[in-house]
Design goal:
The protein has about 700 residues and is an all-alpha fold. It is built from 27 helices and three strands.
């Protein structure tokens, strides 16, 4: 199939085909490797420590199944369908949404510099373990000593002043950071096929090591106390008294799977278009969560033994975050015969886990760059030099003696970025897609009223939930939400009644169906013939649940308070306003500005559109519906892209490959909803019940 042409444009047969994974197994290992990283090994167990042990599983699992998996389907499925990265995908929904795709890539680029330095610190610790400076031969080593060694000697924070601001750059970490970026460069430059095969080791070996560490930890004395603290104690009161746990659980799902960074879209774009996207998404998301949960058992088994060694309760060990790993596993494994070698094995495990995720972040950026008009013909090994060089330079700020402080702050504000990008992704596909067409069918007033009913009610509810103090805040929020929603629905019904009087083709059932689900169901019907069956539940969650709940979670996190009663946003961790809070807030504002610019000035990002995606006409609000088919010009070796129309009244989008679809037969009617008759420009096979016969290649 030929790529890189717009409608009516000729492409020489044999044009380069988009590189694909060598096998589905390679895709699984690469995508799970991208998802599984430091967030699984120390962030997830650390959150369990902070938020009530097993109680954290409640918001985590709800976020996984109700938000995480549907967004994974969205990213992988549409990357696979459009065969492009995030900018092309959301530009395919609407030209004003290209900024959403760009913001997701920006989110990944903000995270990758500090993620690379995390890996650099582990590499530093690995090589330093061979020196006399390492504490691993100390028979009296405890968790506090191990953590202090890592912070002072490896990170270089021993020179940090009381205010926590940087005073120097650690040259050793700068060098190891360069090594990490060099490894990322090589892994991405060799191509998807080679890097996919590489993940059989870089992902497979850490899985083996995880079970080795788990088995070793479970055999140690005191491990059962650690497991009890992990899964046996459920402090459910945390879910009520620490409301930010719900937002943190959602952002953990995003961070862990790799959502809102453009990773899954990029990886999906290298799948064959006919792959079962829903199955693949579920396998990846659930595998990632299983790794997190099993890692928690391994970590807490080690915590239990460490508490036994120190003669304290597990809950008295004040380790969280990365200290949860470096203060437990190295100390516990150091007690075994050949302890230093076990410690080095831990470092190797962490390096491999981190590198898989780092490869994925970089691959997402390069995929977007390769799919632009500027760089579509640039060799990948040359194109990689741009993000690698810039990323390494940004990494230097984390190589200072205040690097851990910068990392902690930016990592916190990335939570806001992930949630807001996730909202824009769901809103773009569930609401913005097809909105203009709905206004043509139903009128502008009912569509706007329905949007207001759904989102204004959420803001009113949040204002009462998080703005009113006292025991009645929760109930007042629900009353405000339901009352506002009811008023909005009443106004919408009034406008729809006028439309019913004008158009006899609708009934109350069908007109409400069109308003509530018409656009998202058409989007599902557009992609199903290519990526496989997509359940209606996905449509419901993407439109009627995820955008609304992400607004609530965002405001919930933003209005959370510190121990001193100050807003958490702008006062996180007690760090100074300058430079720490300012850098974190700037990361969030930068992402928001990218999206707003794209909405207001869509032409600015037009040059970032895919070469194989036809530009929209002068009407910016036109939206794509179906793909073109491709035919061979008689007597030539060239492919010509011939657009076709499915929904009368708005221009179509064309691609450089034949599109299986609804073969020209009348579209499915939903509860009496007027059918949209597709037109076809090639001979068709007659439609039979239960058969989806797509267009045939015309030779």
């Amino acid at each position: 199939m030929a790529e890189g042409a717009a409608a009516g444009e000729k492409v020489t047969a044999g044009a380069p085909k988009r590189e694909e994974w060598s096998s589905r197994a390679a895709f699984y290992f690469a995508a799970v490797g991208a998802a599984v990283g430091f967030g699984n090994v120390w962030r997830f167990p650390g959150l369990c420590v902070t938020y009530g042990g097993g109680a954290f599983f409640v918001p985590y699992l709800l976020a996984l199944f109700l938000v995480g998996i549907p967004l994974t389907i969205l990213e992988i499925g549409f990357g696979q369908f459009f065969q492009t990265g995030d900018i092309g995908v959301f530009g395919g929904f609407h030209p004003r949404l290209r900024g959403v795709g760009l913001s997701s890539v920006a989110c990944g680029f903000m995270l990758l510099p500090y993620y690379a330095v995390l890996i650099a610190w582990v590499i530093n610790a690995f090589f330093d373990s061979f020196s006399n400076n390492a504490p691993w031969d100390n028979p009296n080593l405890d968790g506090t000593m191990a953590v202090n060694y890592f912070i002072d000697e490896i990170i270089g924070a021993e020179t940090l002043p009381a205010d926590g601001t940087p005073t120097r750059v650690d040259g050793k970490n700068v060098g190891y950071s360069f090594l990490v970026w060099l490894m990322m460069y090589i892994a991405c430059a060799v191509g998807i096929k080679a890097s996919g095969r590489l993940t059989f080791f870089t992902m497979g070996f850490p899985i083996v090591l995880l079970f080795v560490f788990l088995g070793t930890g479970l055999t140690m004395e005191g491990s059962s106390d650690g497991i009890k603290a992990y899964i046996g104690v459920w402090d459910m009161g945390v879910l009520r008294t620490q409301g930010q746990v719900w937002s943190v659980a959602c952002s953990q799902v995003f961070f862990s799977i790799g959502l809102t960074f453009g990773i899954m879209t990029a990886y999906g774009s290298h799948c064959p278009r006919g792959e079962p996207a829903v199955l693949n998404s579920c396998v990846i998301a659930i595998s990632n969560s299983m790794f997190s949960i099993i890692s928690g058992f391994a970590i807490f088994a080690a915590l239990g033994h460490l508490a036994f060694l120190e003669g304290v309760e597990v809950t008295d060990l004040s380790f969280s975050g990365f200290a949860l790993v470096f203060g437990t596993w190295p100390v516990v494994l150091n007690t075994l015969p050949g302890g230093a070698h076990w410690v080095r094995l831990v470092f190797c495990n962490l390096i491999l886990l981190g590198m898989d995720s780092a490869f994925a972040f970089l691959e997402a950026m390069v995929t977007v760059l390769q799919d632009t008009r500027y760089f579509k013909d640039t060799p990948k090994h040359l194109l990689l030099l741009l993000p690698v060089t810039i990323g390494w330079l940004f990494s230097i700020i984390y190589c200072t003696d205040a690097g851990l402080n910068f990392l902690d702050v930016v990592d916190f504000y990335i939570n806001f970025v992930m949630i807001i990008v996730g909202f824009f992704e769901a809103f773009g596909s569930g609401w913005a897609y097809g909105m203009v067409h709905q206004t043509k069918l139903l009128g502008t007033a009912p569509v706007v009223a329905y949007v207001g009913a759904n989102f204004l009610s959420v803001f009113v509810g949040c204002a009462l939930w998080f703005g009113v103090k006292g025991e009645h805040a929760v109930w007042s929020g629900f009353v405000g939400l339901i009352s506002t929603y009811s008023c909005g629905i009443a106004i919408t019904t009034l406008y729809l009644s006028k439309r019913l009087a004008q158009d006899g083709n609708y009934t109350w059932e069908t007109i409400w169906w069109e308003l509530s689900f018409g656009n998202i169901v058409r989007l599902r019907n557009r992609i199903q013939p290519v990526i496989g069956a997509v359940p209606f539940l996905w449509c419901f969650l993407i439109k009627q649940f995820i955008p609304q709940i992400l607004i609530i979670l965002f405001i919930n996190l933003a209005t959370s308070e510190t121990e001193n009663g100050d807003p958490l946003f702008g006062n996180y961790g007690g760090y100074e306003k300058q430079p720490f809070q300012a850098l974190g807030i700037l990361s969030f504002v930068f992402t928001l500005v990218i999206v707003i610019i794209g909405v207001i000035f869509p032409k600015i990002y037009e040059t970032l559109a895919l070469a194989q995606v036809d530009d929209y006409d002068a009407n910016d609000d036109a939206e794509p519906a179906v793909l073109s088919h491709t035919s061979i010009v008689p007597g030539s070796k060239e492919l010509v892209h011939q657009p076709q129309q499915a929904y009368p009244g708005y221009p179509q989008q064309t691609y450089g490959y034949p599109q299986p679809g609804y073969g020209g037969y009348p579209q499915q009617a939903y509860g009496g909803y007027p059918r949209q008759q597709g037109t076809m420009m090639m001979p068709q096979t007659n439609y039979q019940p239960g058969m989806m016969q797509g267009p045939q290649m015309q030779w």
